[in-house]
Amino acid sequence: MSETGNTTEKEADHHPYRRPVDAATLILVDRSGATPKVLVGRRHDKVVFMPGKFVFPGGRVDTADGRVPVAAPIPKALEANLLLGSPRITAGRARSLAVAAIREACEETGLCLGRASHGKAPALSGAWKPFADAGLLPDPSGLFLIARAITPPGRVRRFDTRFFTADASAIAHRVDGVIHADAELVELVWVELGSKPLADLHAMTRNVLNELDRRLATGALRHDADVPFYHFYGGKMRRDVLQP
C-alpha cells in the first residue's frame, strides 16, 4: 500500500549523498484530559538540524543503547513492527532503537521512562546516570511504534527515524535544569492535538503527529495497527505501509 504527495518535503541537491543513520524519537502523550496533549520542544536557533523548530525529543542510536540493562524487554509485537521493512535489522537493533528513544527523551527533556530496579543500584553512567541516581532502569515495555521516516537525499543530516509514543504516566523521574537558553531544546510545551502551536511543525513531524492522532481516535494504542513508512522515491516523498 502506498501514497505520494503527503508532505511538502522536496528533493535537494546542495549537499552530497549521505547514508541515513538510525535514529529514534519519542512522542509523549498526556491523555488525562478530554483532549490528548503531546510534548514538543523548541530547538535552539543555532543547531544544524531544524533550527528553531518545534520537534519531538530524539536523536541517533548510540552503541551503548544495545548494552544498557532494562527493567523489562520490549514487547514481542513491538519488536515485530521494528523488524518490518528494509534494510533488515536484528532483534538487538530493534531493542537499541526503543532504548535510544528513552535515552534521548531523558537527555533532551529531563523526563525519564523507567521502573524501580528493586535492589542494588543499577550500574549506569553517562547519559543513563539520571536513571541510576533515581534507582531506575529504563523501561521500553510501554512504547508503541507510530511511524518510520527517512530524511530525503541532499540534506546536511539524514536519519532513518523510528517514531515511538508512550503515555505520560510512564514518566518515572524528572531531571531539573535540562531545558535552558543554551540547551539543544530551549523550551518544552504540552499542546493539545489540533491546536495552533502545532501548525508550525516541520512537515514530517506533522505527518507523524497526524498518524498518532488517527491512532488515538480509535481508542487505545495497539501494536497491530499499520505502521507507515515515509521515504523519498522517484522524486517524491512517498508513504508506504511497512510489510513483512
Description:
The protein has helices spanning 76-82, 91-109, 129-133, 203-217; strands at residues 2-4, 21-30, 37-43, 54-55, 58-60, 111-116, 136-138, 144-150, 159-167, 171-174, 185-192, 228-233, 236-241. The protein has 244 residues and is α+β, with helices and mostly antiparallel strands. Strand 2 (21-30) and strand 3 form a beta hairpin. The radius of gyration is 17 Å and the shape is globular.
Number of helices: 4
Which spans of ≥5 residues are poorly predicted at pLDDT below 50?
1-13
Quickly name the level 1 CATH class.
Alpha Beta
Helix amount:
10-25%
> Count of DSSP E strands?
13
Radius of gyration: 17 Å
CATH topological fold name: Nucleoside Triphosphate Pyrophosphohydrolase
The CATH homologous superfamily is named Nucleoside Triphosphate Pyrophosphohydrolase
What is the 3D form? globular
Output the keywords.
244 residues; alpha+beta; Nucleoside Triphosphate Pyrophosphohydrolase; ten-stranded mixed beta sheet; three-stranded antiparallel beta sheet; 19% helix; 30% strand; disordered N terminus
Question: Could you outline the blueprint of secondary structure elements for this entry?
Answer:
Layout: E1 2-4, E2 21-30, E3 37-43, E4 54-55, E5 58-60, H1 76-82, H2 91-109, E6 111-116, H3 129-133, E7 136-138, E8 144-150, E9 159-167, E10 171-174, E11 185-192, H4 203-217, E12 228-233, E13 236-241
Parallel strand pairs: 2-9, 8-12
Antiparallel strand pairs: 1-13, 2-3, 2-5, 3-4, 3-11, 6-7, 6-10, 8-9, 12-13
